[in-house]
Amino acid sequence: MPPEMEPSVLNGSSTPNYAEKREQQNGGPRPKEDLRKRIRAALPQVLATSAKNVLLLGYGMTLGFPTIVIPAVSRRPLVAGDAGNATLGAAEEPGHLTLTDAELSWFSSINLICVPLGCLLSGPLSTPIGRRPAMMLVNLPLAAAWLLFHFAQSVGMLYAGLALAGASGGLLEAPVLTYVAEITEPRFRGALSATSSTSVIVGVFTQFLLGNLLPWRTVALVNLVCPVAAVIALCFVPESPHWLVGKGRLAAAEKALCWLRGWVQPEDIRQELNELVVTIGGAGSADKAGASGATQQQRQQPAWRNYLKRTFVRPYLLVSASFAIGHFCGMTTVQTYAVVVFSQLGAPAGRYTATLLLGVAQLLGALTGVCSVHRFGKRPLALLSAAGNGACFVVVAILAAHSGPASEDSNTWTPSLILVAASVMSHVGLRMLPWILIGEVYPAEVRGTASGASGSMGDDMDLSQLRVKYLKDFAVRAAKQSGYNTFDSSEACDCIGFVLTTKSSKDLPDRMKAVICGAVVNAKSRTKETDMLAKEYLRLRENDMRTAALHKYGTAVEGDVKWNSLISSLGEAAVKMEMLKVKPSQTVSLSLESDYKVSRERSSKGATFVLYNYARITSILKQFHEKEEKKLYPTLLTLDEIDFASLKCDEEWQLLHFIIVYPSIVNSLGNDLEKGILKPHVICIFLSAMCKTFSVYYRRIRILREPRQHLFPTMCARIYLLKALQITLQSSLHLMGIDTVNQM
To answer: Which among 439, 317, 335 is positioned nearest to 378, based on CA atoms?
Structure first.
């Protein structure tokens, strides 16, 4: 991952424009407008995910197909007195194609045996040619498999079809699962990733349903529709922007992002695109400016080294274990031999009807998991699924051992219903979990191959690289807020550019300035922190905020969506303040322990304190306007009617001083950028000092008082002071990339 970035700044200035920011903060979209925007943003991601789900639907069909074939080609009756070996729907010609018990065992296994072989080729295939072309190519062997099944005249042709189907299932792993992880926003990713397992289950269910209506050869021919539909659907969705950026195709990546984010304009996705360029290290701005020594060294490293890093090994073991547990939960075998199993259990409604119910149960379990994962999380669902699935199988085993083999006269639903319940429980969590994890846990440079070998952007950043990213984002915002224009390339025009890097940069163009960024060090060991990843520290700070909220507000915090969103924002804001409050060239020392004492020390200062005082100001202004609307207060005086001489408190004049000097501070940031100097710490110092002054003022002065005639003019002056203070805080927090909060 390249640790350097290159915002470029024009030589030119204008007065800062804060009108758009104020409009966003004070107004904001109405609920109906917000809902429409959310639907518009989600729709293209749902459509793109649905297109790749058609391919997974076909893979699910290959898993369900043996279930309807086994009864038709078996030489032995399934239970004593079985009249024949009809398929789920109609009878085949007697003696047309039959398999021995040994051949049936291979028939049920070859598909899954060949899946790992396809998985090993999946990543190398999808990485060079792209996710979408790889998904299209997978349909060729899948279509060939269905033709082999339809025209099969020997056991060998059945085996060949199963081998092609299994290899196709492995080949689609990397492009399909990587694609959904790379095109979706984090807020939609969990639910849309979960649709992968649901699509596979729907494919299995279609085989059970079609098998009740048609002979298995006809079902194979009908299944040809799925590969054709998948190719057609994929023609209408864009390629992964991650892959396009990695190949240096920035124009195509911009077009794809515009489509995926709701058919928006390029300027609406500019920031996300720039972050992709920085994180993935494509042929973006930093490459055009000249890469630093660190980046060149990184590119010279062999690709296989990425697979020795902890950022690959730990996710790989996690996902592989999830797939193993999902398959060893018993449902893979039950699904393949469903007709045989229900025959042995003596399902009263018939083994074929029970098999169809099994498919319905799998589908219901998968849909329940998709709808629940966003609210309850992956871990609770996985634990519930494992416990329920295990309990059901234990009960079925006891009942089956006690009653013995069933006959045609058996008439008990109990074992069959419990087995169906086991199917529901397994698909709620265990069978769905690996499909979600595989698209989320791998870093970008190994995601394609790792997804195939197993079975989002920037996850492998270390803390020093995270600091460089925050500094780059601050530089871009500071340039814009100072009245400058920014460009992705210093070659775009006569401008001054700069590179942010953790190491010295040599041989830069004359107009390029190097900003050396100090590393992030462990406060305990006093050495550069390399063990803890950026995402892990962000999670640690989020846990600090959650602990503080639990101590203050109790259990009401747990499970509440709004609280979770607020705590996540506070955690990231705290990290940004810690990274930016120190002069860029100096190191940042962080306490990485997770004990409660240290977490309290971390949470008692910085961004939390600033945001808490912003929330105080917002609350006061809200109360004033509510009382004004209820006629409890007179109408607020106009600015021309305000006598600021009525402000007598020292803190009030100190706050006025902060407000007055802020524009000059912003302008000085832009002037320093021309010299290659970055000063985010100046804004941090400014914010801390201003909020400390306001905190003292808040404790000393009661702003909202009785609306008496002689008190009201002073109250109005203070309200205008708070309004100006709110705008100043909004602007400075925007510079830091910190979202404001209205209540804490």
So the answer is: 439
Does a structural domain hold residue 646? yes
Rg (CA), the chain: 31
| Residue 726, domain CATH | 1.10.730.10
Residues 553-602: tens digit of each pLDDT: 777 666 666 777 788 788 888 888 888 888 888 888 888 775 544 444 44
* Residue 69 included in any domain: yes
What span, in angstroms and rounded, lies between the C-alpha atoms of 430 and 372? 13
Q: In this structure, is residue 252 part of a structural domain? A: no
* Cβ–Cβ < 8 Å for 451, 439: yes
Mean pLDDT check: name the lowest of 166-175, 363-372, 623-632, 639-648. Answer: 363-372
- Structural domains counted in the chain: 2
The pLDDT of residue 146: 92
Write out the residue range of the structural domain in which residue 169 sits: 21-237+300-454
- From 419, 454, 489, give the residue that closes a domain: 454
pTM for this entry: 0.50
CA distance 211 to 350: 14
Which residues of 547-632 form beta strands (DSSP E)? 588-590
Average pLDDT, the chain: 75
- Check if the beta carbon of residue 601 is closer than 8 Å to that of residue 546: no
Specify the 3-state DSSP secondary structure of 376: helix
Pairing of strands 520-522, 512-516: unpaired
Give whole-number Cα distances, 90 to 153, 212, 218, 360, in Å. Answer: 19, 7, 10, 21
B/e letters for 482-492, b = 16+ CB within 10 Å, e = fewer, are: bbbbbbbbbee
Question: Which residue matches tokens 């204008």?
Answer: 14
> Are residues 714 and 646 in contact, defined by beta-carbon separation less than 8 angstroms?
yes
Cα(727)–Cα(667) distance, rounded to whole angstroms? 17
**Domain C-terminal end among 454, 479, 506:** 454
Q: Is residue 126 part of a domain?
A: yes
Q: How far apart are CA 615 and CA 573, in angstroms?
A: 14
